[in-house]
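User: I'm curious whether this sequence folds into something compact or stays loose and floppy. Could you predict its structure so I can see for myself?
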Amino acid sequence: MRVKKILGLFSIALVTALTAVFIYAKFFQQQPQIVEVEPQPAARQVNLPTAEARFTMDFTPAAEASVNAVVHVKTTAMRETQVNPLYEFFFGPVPDDYERPVMGFGSGVIISKDGYIVTNNHVIDGSDEISVTMNDRREFEAKLVGNDPSTDLALLKIEEKGLPTLKYGNSDDLQLGEWVLAVGNPYNLTSTVTAGIVSAKARNINILRNRFGIESFIQTDAAVNPGNSGGALVNTRGQLVGINTAIASRTGNYTGYSFAVPVSIVQKVVDDLMEFGEVQRAILGVTIANITSELADEENLDNTKGVYVNDLTENGAAKDAGIKPGDVILSVNGVKVNSVSELQEQVSKYRPKDKVEVDIKRRGNVKQFDVVLRNLQGTTEIVRTNEVLETLGATFEPVSPQEMRQLGIRNGVKVASVKPGKFMKVGIKEGFVVTSVNKQPVNSINDITSLLNEADGGVIIEGVYEDGSKSYYAFGM
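Assistant: Here's the prediction. I'll summarize afterward.
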């Protein structure tokens, strides 16, 4: 009995020992499997290439090419002001026409070695004195060569030679996401450079309030603040692609959106101001609208491409060429247009008397029309500064047939802008439609100038505002 018990214990011990040997051999003496793992690349930040990268993001050449060609623009305007009665009590009466200086600041871009500088119209509008300060702190008095409220551009001239300049780039070639630099003088901080990308093109933000205002802005996220207006938007090659003009902001400071006039418009305006002293504005003579899904359904259009023609100007270029209301404009000289702002930008490149090919879709068929562009007066002639209009301090534009129907009038010419002059003194505002001068009907700008040239002494202007209210004004010539 004892022997059996010993043998049983021995058997259990043997089995346990063999099991332990097996487990040790299986789990503790087995050679590990060797797996080759490819080395992982070092982590790096997106869009920030390292120094070893083949292409590096270096803005220094573009910045260096730009800062010396961007100037600080300072303006002074004398404004009538009311004097505090306490001031007069202690210091005596002041003249009724007491004026005080109002200072303004902005930026400008030198575009020629002999001193031509482009800036925004709103930077210099209404100023009595203009001066510019170079990046090397030299200061010059500037003269206004001409301005264009329709594009918010102005051209200045200083008397100096051998100045640094910025060369024109091609804003049509700009791509969404392309890097650009904004160069200017925000908050009077001279020679400030910020970087961003092109966020959108052909933006209309409704800041130019006259009917022929051309808004086809380049939208960027480069930081632009008060004082940057009139400064340069340049590409990474240091070429001028736009003039910084506006920001979208509820605070008045930069909040992520800035807008620039494309250089395709800038170059045309500058050339006109240099040659003629004013812009030779070419128009198609159409009232147009963006094509939305609702409009496409309403007018039975097969897609939303192109620009819809609502109405035509009597005796205008488009009507004479055969374009009709309900047509869809697809392109101008081969350049496709899909918004009102894109169409305006393309037409703005030309002068009156230029012929352009306009592709139209009409009832599903594409037709091509040769259109000879005209000026705001409805002719193909070069427009020159008129002494009478300068005295009035106003610019004019035609009234569309649709507007005439809405206002219940048969004739008239609309006031497009008002600056210091006869109109401003008597209170005539933008949007006023002049229907008669000295009881004689007005149908064109030429009617206004000829009737005022014939006027002897007093002048009576009659007309109507956009809300339908009629007004009468009188002044002496």
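Summary: The first helix runs from residue 2 to 27. The CA atoms of residues 1 and 7 lie 10 Å apart.
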